[in-house]
């Protein structure tokens, strides 16, 4: 019910731009342009150090300034109508994967039940649904399959090192009972709002693969600016994949 009341309030109360604070617009044209990276679109990103099992990851925009503010407004302040523009950014990241020409399954990384209850909505699932709609309107078959769940409680990842995050989420995810058969029809794209170390996406890929699914890659709305730079100077320091 919290999500319903937030949406109703947004229809009648004046709002400011979630990205820059410009009055009387939930997301101004300038901040939409920033989310779209001035037309440059999504790019492949790579956290460093790269966790074992991490699939190819594409991100729509660097996690900085306006993009950070918009994601936090949607996730923590319940600005639910921002799911639309954020879903468009995520859809661009999904397209970047070029995961074949058939229908795709978008598999959201699950939030803890206590977090969903506290926020009144599941932000990643909401963005994934918006992205699937965007892809279908563009002629690409896509549907959201929320089959992952946490099998145990994990600590808050904020403040943990890359090594600690890997240990924190190792074995923490699983496919819901009876849902494994749903993963065998089409390739799965893991989706999340943000990637930092890649530990959670690597664990999600392990869980989907263990259930018999085929992971085509991962797509996120945002990633640290440094992860966008691996095609440049950092690429010489990174091991090449076979």
TrEMBL record:
SUPFAM superfamilies: PRTase-like. Gene3D superfamilies: 3.40.50.2020. InterPro entries: ComF/GntX_DNA_util-trans, PRTase-like. It comes from the Bacteria. This is Uncharacterized protein. It comes from Streptomyces lydicamycinicus.
